[in-house]
UniProtKB/TrEMBL annotation:
Zn(2+) 1 binds at C127, C129, C137. NCBIfam families: PRK09283.1 (NF006762). Its cofactor is Zn(2+). The gene is LOC118262986. 5-aminolevulinate 2 binds at S284, Y321. It comes from Spodoptera frugiperda. One of its GO terms (cellular component) is cytosol. This is Delta-aminolevulinic acid dehydratase. Catalyzes an early step in the biosynthesis of tetrapyrroles. Binds two molecules of 5-aminolevulinate per subunit, each at a distinct site, and catalyzes their condensation to form porphobilinogen. Belongs to the ALAD family. It comes from the Eukaryota.
């Protein structure tokens, strides 16, 4: 009878009883500094620092406190950041003119950050919602629909401004169709295509998990929602078509956002485009959820399991507000 149960060829436990063996059973799931990108919120006032109420340990920084914060993280091995500009003094209008006016905090900070941190890879989120009076990610027609052509033209203009100011990656999060080609064409026209890459928020879903971020950025739409441009949560098909379109238009990197509820989309995208590095944005709502999971040691264990799952699903880089904590964890392990 015992023979039926104890069949030698069905024993798996012999392959992972030792921690080194377990590592071999988890290929391509390690978390190193280059697998992490840190999103930062940049204020207009160079000396200000403001905690974000809905996100423990996350702050919005003016340039000077941001530099001090980054100095410490770069020392710990931080490889890359993603910058979001926030304006309160500059005007918000229908065309989002503050997105690329000379006083824009991102445009002003870029040359200084590049000079201060020559080895840090600097990406900039490109969108109009922090700068438009209506709070939408594109421009609107008089009757309130998205003006496709005008939006794409404007997004490309803003992306080019950030690229000229020193952004090494431009990352359009607006979800307007065809913006990748428009941005690539703009980069080519200024001979920047080989020193600036395009990270497309290709599979960005209309998620309820952006809540804390919209509070932080004060970028929630005044009227309506983003369901006409962000993808419906149930649509794997639109996600596949969006990724295919962005690859065809010249995206260097793809992204799935949010992460954890969309790991099937991560796998489908990686399987289809294995040669395009794939990013996950672990969004503000995911951050807030994990922070509430328990004490600091439980949070760390759950965070690592989550990041491992994302890597297993096919993500090469994870954009995460946990970057400072992750760097501490990585450094302690070594
Ligand atoms: C807006 C933008 C959003 C995020 C990044 N860029 C939110 C939105 O679409 O409303 C979400 C980031 C997060 O929740 O952490 N273009
Ligand atoms: Zn937006």
């Amino acid at each position: 009878m015992n023979q039926l149960f104890l069949s030698a060829e069905h024993v798996l436990q012999g392959g992972y009883f030792h921690s080194t063996l377990r590592k071999l059973q988890e290929p391509n799931t390690s978390i190193e500094a280059h697998n992490i990108m840190y999103p930062v919120f940049l204020l207009e006032d160079d000396n200000l620092i403001q905690p974000v109420a809905s996100m423990p340990n996350v702050c919005r920084y003016g340039l000077h406190p941001l530099i001090s914060h980054l100095e410490e993280l770069v020392d710990k091995g931080l490889n890359s950041i993603l910058i979001f500009g926030i304006v309160t003094a500059l005007p918000k209008d229908a065309s989002g003119s503050s997105a690329d006016c000379p006083e824009n905090p991102v445009l002003k900070a870029l040359p200084k950050l590049r000079a201060k941190f020559p080895n840090l890879l600097i990406a900039c989120d490109v969108c109009l919602c922090p700068y438009t009076s209506h709070g939408h990610c594109g421009l609107l027609t008089p009757n309130g629909a998205i003006d496709h052509a005008a939006s794409v033209r404007r997004i490309a203009e803003v992306a080019l401004a950030y690229a000229k100011a020193g952004a090494q990656i431009v990352a359009p999060s607006d979800m307007m169709d065809n913006r990748i080609k428009a941005i690539k064409d703009a980069l080519v026209s200024c001979k920047l295509q080989n020193t600036v890459s395009v990270l497309s928020y290709s599979c960005k879903f209309a998620s309820a998990m952006y809540g804390p971020f919209r509070d932080t950025m004060k970028s929630a739409p005044m009227e309506g929602d983003r369901k006409c441009y962000q993808l419906p949560p149930g649509s794997a098909g639109l996600a596949a078509r969006a990724a295919a379109r962005d690859v065809a238009e010249g995206a260097d990197f793809l992204m799935v956002k949010p992460g954890l509820p969309y790991l099937d989309i991560v796998r489908q995208t990686k399987d289809k485009y294995p040669y395009h590095p794939l990013f996950i944005y672990q969004v503000s709502g995911e951050y807030a959820m994990i922070c509430r999971c328990g004490d600091s040691s439980e949070v760390q264990t759950i965070l690592m399991e989550t990041l491992t799952s994302m890597r297993r699903a096919g993500a090469d880089c994870i954009i995460t507000y946990f970057a400072p904590l992750i760097l501490n964890m990585i450094n302690k392990k070594q």
